[in-house]
Design a protein that fits this description.
By secondary structure, this protein is α/β, with parallel strands linked by helices. About 40% of the residues lie in helices and about 20% in strands. It contains 18 helices and 18 strands. β9 and β10 (about 245-250) form a beta hairpin. α3 packs parallel to α9 (about 215-220), α11 (about 285-300) packs antiparallel against α12 and α13 (about 350-360) packs parallel to α14 (about 390-395). The longest helix is centred in the C-terminal third of the chain and has 41 residues, at about 455-494. Mean pLDDT is about 85; it is low at about 1-35 and about 450-460.
């Protein structure tokens, strides 16, 4: 039963959310959902129809070509397809300019007849370079936006030289795939194919199984809609382009320098300290995932001398400062320092770590800046072995914006106790370390610059002066008007 489109799109969403989902599964789902587009490509099939290829086998080659074509986005502005047939001579069966539709192209392929003579593979490659890929035959002008691809299918040893002519074709920008069948000479295939050879050389034991390569070539030319398949890391809005994408933000948000993250307040200076659980329950392989997660969040910050400063503290049974605020003021140095962090192991003294944060990490002596918003990001994977309540309360009383992130056996009540209000925006939990990347996407450190109270006082005073001046002016105008009226009345009485 063919899966419905909604079901396929659901699968794509789930795959996109899982970092461990195999790329070939996501590609297969994209193809099934019709989310593949072919990057503009000129493809020429170069097929051997020498005496060694029996008529029934040649029919199987044509079926293979038709099935690959079926998966392509054929059109004058998408994929153009040509077919070169060769034996001792070469025949241009289908030129790149001949067929604009998939149906017409497949019909033309079914009519090709074998030549049934020798095997002049080098001559066929030279013909393709000079004729099949020429503008007069429908090839497009060489451009980074247009792929040139030759797919050679052969079952024997060529009777001429292929090495030099294949090199000339590759130098001209043609990507060569070489498919060998049966008793083919494998060294010849490697001489013809582009690098890496593992991706460009294929072998099947007989023509009866050549169809199994269909999927490979369909996927090779499938450029999926990365926004639809979820293969992107845009925080808010993903805009598709062929084989690529770009990120954008919703109204009221600004795209950050990393090209992926969005911020409601991107110009605020912020001091951010990560408080990371390095206890033995985390395990070394997961600790590496935690470090990658930290760097994901750093990518979203505007790190510089005058903007975001980042500090890092690790804890287990004891607390260790990895580096203080302000030591690294560019993302590269900062991320490199995170990667160098060594795993502590041992216990989980989260309360002690929180006390270190409130008493030391955000002090001037550790690089904290006065008047700058302070953000603490606490990560843990288990229940604290000491009391956290007082230290968690003190952090929030001191005005620190606290985020709590838990994985696995982390206790959600403890996370909520650490997190700032509203709790739903400041605490996160996932059961698996492998899905921490999703938390990194959701965690928003949107710190808006608060009004300077001095500036506010000055503005209030200024407004009061203006109001007083207006009142005084109004009174003066009224008095002058009344004086004139009284004078007029006096004149009339006299």
């Amino acid at each position: 039963m063919t899966p419905s489109l909604p079901m396929i799109l659901l699968l794509l969403g789930l795959m996109g959310a899982q970092a461990t989902a195999p790329a070939d599964l996501r590609m297969a789902a994209a193809m099934a959902a019709g989310l593949c587009k072919t990057r503009p490509t000129d493809i020429v099939f170069i097929i051997d129809s020498s005496r060694s290829v029996r008529p029934s086998e040649f029919e199987q080659v044509k079926v293979f070509l038709a099935k690959v074509i079926e998966g392509l986005d054929v059109g004058p502005n998408a994929t153009r397809v040509g077919v070169v047939n060769y034996a001792s001579r070469v025949k241009n069966e289908v030129s790149l300019k001949t067929h604009r539709s998939k149906a017409g192209l497949i019909k033309a392929v079914t009519k090709i007849e074998p030549l049934s003579t020798g095997t002049m593979t080098g001559l066929a490659i030279q013909f393709s370079l000079n004729v099949a890929f020429s503008e007069s035959e429908g090839a497009r002008v060489k451009s980074p936006d247009i792929n040139k691809v030759a797919i050679i299918v052969t079952d024997g040893r060529p009777q001429d030289n292929v090495k030099e002519v294949a090199q000339r074709a590759r130098d001209a920008g043609i990507e060569i795939f070489a498919i060998g069948v049966g008793r083919v000479d494998m060294s010849t295939l490697r001489q013809m194919a582009s690098d890496p050879l593992d991706d460009h050389v294929d072998y099947v034991e007989s023509y009866s199984v050549i169809e199994k390569l269909t999927k490979k070539f369909q996927e090779a030319f499938c450029v999926s809609d990365l926004c639809a398949t979820g293969d992107h890391d845009c925080e808010q809005v993903c805009i598709s382009s062929p084989g690529s994408y770009k990120c954008a933000c919703k109204d009221g948000f600004t795209l950050m320098a990393d090209g992926r993250s969005c911020s409601a307040c991107s110009n605020s200076a912020t001091d951010v300290v990560f408080l990371i659980d390095g206890s033995k329950s985390v395990r070394p392989e997961n600790f590496e995932l935690v470090k990658k997660w930290i760097n994901q969040i750093i990518d979203k910050l505007d790190v510089s001398e005058n903007k975001a400063h980042v500090g890092l503290v690790q804890y287990s049974s004891s607390v260790r400062q990895e580096f203080p605020l302000g030591r690294h003021n560019n993302k590269k140095d900062l991320k490199d320092a995170v990667k160098r962090m060594a795993y502590m192991e041992r216990g989980t003294m989260t309360g002690q770590a929180l006390r270190y944060l409130t008493d030391n990490s955000f002090s001037a002596g550790q690089g904290a800046r006065p008047g700058v918003t302070k953000v603490g990001i606490v990560f843990t994977d288990g229940r604290s072995q000491d009391y956290i309540g007082d230290a968690a309360k003190k952090a929030k009383e001191q005005g620190f914006k606290m985020y709590a992130v838990g994985v696995g056996n982390a206790v959600e009540d403890e996370l909520k106790e650490i997190a700032s209000e509203p709790t739903g925006e400041h605490y996160f939990y996932t059961a698996d370390f492998k899905t921490m990347t999703q938390i990194a996407k959701k965690l928003q450190i949107n710190i808006c610059q608060e009004d300077d109270p001095c500036e506010c006082d000055t503005l209030v005073k200024f407004q009061k002066k203006v109001e007083d001046a207006l009142q005084a002016l109004t009174k003066k105008v009224l008095l002058e008007s009344m004086s004139k009226r009284i004078a007029l009345l006096e004149n009339k009485i006299v």
